[in-house]
TrEMBL record, chain A:
Classification via CDD domains: TM_PBP2 (cd06261)
TM helices/strands, residue ranges: 12-36, 77-98, 110-132, 193-223, 243-265
Lipid bilayer topology: Multi-pass membrane protein
Protein name (database record): ABC transporter permease
UniProtKB/TrEMBL annotation, chain B:
InterPro entries (UniProt xref): AAA+_ATPase, ABC_Ni/Peptide_Import, ABC_transporter-like_ATP-bd, ABC_transporter-like_CS, Oligopep_ABC_C, P-loop_NTPase
Regions crossing the membrane: none
Family note: Belongs to the ABC transporter superfamily.
Gene: oppD_4
Keywords: ATP-binding, Cell membrane, Membrane, Nucleotide-binding, Transport
Listed GO biological process terms: peptide transport
Annotated organism of origin: Sinosporangium siamense
NCBIfam families per the UniProt record, alphabetical: oligo_HPY (TIGR01727)
Name of the protein described by the UniProt record: Oligopeptide ABC transporter ATP-binding protein OppD
Lineage: Bacteria, Bacillati, Actinomycetota, Actinomycetes, Streptosporangiales
Subcellular location(s) of the protein: Cell membrane
A GO molecular-function descriptor: ATP hydrolysis activity
GO cellular component terms, semicolon-separated: plasma membrane
Amino acid sequence: MRRTRRALLRGGGATVAAAAVLGLVVAAAAAVPVLWPHDAMTTTFGSILEAPSLAHPMGTDGVGRDVLARFGEGARISLLIGLVAVVTGALAGLLIGLTSGLAGGAVDEVLMRVMDALMAFPTLMLTMAVTISLGSGLPSATAGVTIGTIPWFARVARSETLRITALPMVEAAVALGMGRARLIRAHVLPHMVSVLVVQATATYGSVILSVAALGFLGLGARVPTPEWGAMITEGMEPALTGAWWVAFFPGLGMLIVVTCTSVLSDRIRDVLDPRGSFSGVKGVT
Amino acid sequence: MKPDTVLSVKDMHTVFATPGGTAHAIRGVSFDLRRGERLGIVGESGAGKSALVLSLLGLVEPPGRVAGGSVWLNGRDLRTLSERQMRRVRGKEISIVFQDPLTALNPVRRIGPQVAEVLLMHGDLSRKQARERAVGLLADVELPEPEKCYAAYPHELSGGMRQRVMIAIALANSPDVLIADEPTTALDATTQAQIITLLNKVIEERGTAVVMITHNMGLVADFCDTVQVMYAGEVVEYGSRDRLLDRPAHPYTAALLASVPAMDARRDLPLPALSGLPPSLTDLPEGCAFAPRCPLEGERGLCRTTRPAPRILDGEPDRMSMCHFSAEQLALTS
């Protein structure tokens, strides 16, 4: 574990910078709603569309709410929903892929054709369709986004299951009387965790974007909710009159989160992939 | 069946469906294994050695299937057991050591838990007891510092040490029969000798019967009590090691032995080699499978038309040869 962590940080400036910046956003999500004196929902008609200043570092919006406070709440929503969607999607995909890969035959065929059907839709279309059918709002947006990720995890989990169960060590374990449950626990899962983690970090950024897109279109978070996508919608009109900050900061937040997670997921893949070369990692002889 | 028989295979047939037709990988193999006996099974690649191992363990998977025969172990026919029952037999009553210990061990888990696991799978030990026994087993296979090995990952051990771990795993539940599938092929010569010495020791302590699959004649001569020669899915000759190696009764055995390089061979002569290839298992010749390559056969019609029956040799009980002209072959070598 310590070796992995060290290897992660040895990835050079980009990795460290990405981790640091992402850390800042996470800190904002954690600290701003608690520590920042302004509330995300309180409207102050005396201070409408104020430009960024010391009192309001990100300015105020069209009804006088502090954008920094809303940015912090928005970070909370985005990061949490991303996490929920990715974890649920990964677990569901893992279950489907594992079943498919181990059962084979008709079960495999049916499950994989369903996954193919889901993947045939552009992800955002699928996400929107599910969200609309569930009624708009953050919970349905989360469900929609989650369903969009499942087939990708299922495909990876299935191919990993097939790869691992064909390994000689699994053959050996079976020849020594290992049953299916223990086989999954002892051999299959430990060997596919890394691939799933890479897939999950890579998906995380796109999930956050999808949630924001739904919010922007009015399908996800509803308008007073300080969700980044919804905030951009609210900021469009002020932006026409020169108040760029209302839409700019939530957009910047997304840009940062997506860029940083994609840099980190690349690095995680390099570190976890046993075929990659770990330059300078001791103990691998 | 002899009284102290542990494993008895009767008329085993295994086939594989291939695009080119049905491949008859095992064609009527029968043998008995006595308690503590060390049986060597030799033959070239494709003779059916591995298919035999899979068939014994009930691990033949589609497109292959065991088409007939029985495998008697401890009074019951393994072929009639359900997969669930069979799982309790594998690793407990009949166990196996594989050729390549590196690929047979899980690289991301420590050695110890992998040994303890086979104990937990087949017995009702507590985790702590299993751990203690596992350390004991690692000591049994003469690994230095067994406690340290318990906590090591496979890549931290040498090839020989890994094979010792595999032996510990295979013998963890004191099986009646141990299948050793070319256990020394992946090791260098000095390590091979050490592993064989170790195997000798641990199976003697436990009275385990061993089926040694190999194409190393030297190993057969060192280790085995009895030898079975396979060719094209059949056992063409069976007998005690000394009798069989000294006086082969089947021309294939004779050719196999003749092609083993000897230290005192004349260097200016080419090493005798058997020409031709084993027959295709999807398109076997009508008579003796070995007839097309047989140095003895010449142009005898009998070999080309009639499959020889396994016959007991005169005056030699426990000796079988599947050749019409065994007497002639014996006369050649005596």
